[in-house]
């Protein structure tokens, strides 16, 4: 069906805007021969109860390692943090960074660090995140780590009555990491999930159809997960078995299944896999997977949720195309859509501010010129109005010599000066009002996002560190795997034209 001229591409595809696939780099699905999927948080959408369980189990391990019993009172709050935060293990803080790695928000324990203190603390050059001091919370699996870190710092310092030493805050992060790893390794987390799949897994009813559609178009599909075969079997059976009549079991949707993959090492170190079945493999590496599939490099699209383990490494070391799954996109876009009018009004205010600032600078210069022209006969009562930056410098010599002012009478000069003075005051009032309105709209928009950390992908006027990494490394991003079903298997994904700041202004010229 040819869409009506006014219909957007999104309406044509039958998807709400927040379920769309967004594009950083061009991909033609026609050129993609194989599509691989991570399982945890990609094919399988976990509920926040999973992070709650991981937190609870990690606390039990921490208490066994000597941390106070009071930790057992801590209850996980999924709304506390967001993905993409960074733990400063040297100072005991959890921070958010912008695209240039400037720390823009910081909490110590359960207390926000004020702007002045934060700037003083992080005024030096942007940190090297590869250094051991910083720990990035890349995945939804890691959100319990930043939550626990803040809560335990608060609890320990509250009991001790003094700040923790750097060695203690470093040790605390290492212990939390160890205990979170432990609940993944000792099977306590996964056995709880296996025993109550409905509690921890949010089944996407459109997943089977999406996979079927891609298979029908001749794409080879594979699973590539760090989970072991037993757990993968449980989860995938729950997600797919019985969903479509043409598929006997979940394995029928895939050409190959690679488990216990040890990503990101899977992409870096050649290792022969153990064969588990006709098309299932344990461990191994990218070379063996490509050989088994008969597809390699940019003919493979890999879909995962981990910016480092799935997306950055697969793209940089193998040339695979990548898609990042971010469930958060749906909530954030819904929030932005609900405040579309406020965002539009704020943009208009920003444009008005540019004009007001220009007009004010010009009016202040004219006022100074007028004052100088009449300074021999009039009392100078405007000094307080003038920007100190303009005071008595050589720059103003030309204005003093303005012939139109030099020929005017004292009364005319006084009138001119009063008119300019009133105009400067009015412009300043309008700028003040403009700023207040802009702040009001920003607060109105921000209340839809995390009250401590704001948006996932943006930080004030810039991308967040996480948003910047996503833009740099993921070819595509979307909220869930099943969104693929709305696109033709031959669809060409093309990014929007990337305008530089000076080009963005062009749309206002001539209006
Ligand atoms: Mg995953």
Give a written overview of the molecule.
This protein is of the alpha/beta class and 511 residues long. The chain folds into 3 domains: 9-41 and 201-335 and 460-494, Rossmann fold (3-Layer(aba) Sandwich); 46-197, no CATH class; 340-447. 45% of the residues lie in helices and 13% in strands. It has 19 helices and 20 strands. It has helices at 9-13, 48-64, 115-121, 143-160, 166-185, 188-195, 197-200, 207-216, 229-240, 265-268, 286-293, 307-318, 328-338, 340-373, 397-400, 403-406, 410-446, 465-473, 501-504; strands at residues 22-23, 27-28, 34-37, 45-46, 86-88, 93-97, 103-108, 111-112, 134-136, 201-202, 220-224, 256-259, 274-275, 280-282, 300-304, 321-325, 458-459, 462-463, 476-478, 492-493. It has a 9-stranded mixed β-sheet with strand order 1-19-16-15-3-11-12-14-13, sandwiched between helices. The chain has a 5-stranded antiparallel β-sheet with strand order 8-7-6-5-9. A two-stranded antiparallel ribbon has the order 2-20. β13 (274-275) and β14 (280-282) form a beta hairpin. α2 (48-64) packs across α4 (143-160). Mean pLDDT is 87; it is low at 1-12 and 389-401. Residues 38, 40-42, 304-306 line the site of magnesium ion (MG). The site of magnesium ion (MG) has 7 residues, from loops.
CATH class call of the largest domain: Alpha Beta
Strand line-up of the largest beta sheet: 1-19-16-15-3-11-12-14-13
**Looking at CATH, which topology of the largest domain would you report?**
Rossmann fold
The major β-sheet equals: 9 strands, mixed
CATH superfamily of the largest domain: HAD superfamily/HAD-like
| Oligomeric state of the chains present here | single chain
Helicity range: 40-55%
Total domains? 3
Helical segment count: 19
Beta-strand proportion: 5-15%
The value of Rg in angstroms is 29 Å
Cofactors and ligands present? magnesium ion
Look at the structure and give the mean pLDDT: 87
Quote the distance from N terminus to C terminus: 36 Å
How many beta-strand runs? 20
Poorly predicted sequence stretches spanning 5 or more consecutive residues: 1-12, 389-401
**Overall SS class:** alpha/beta
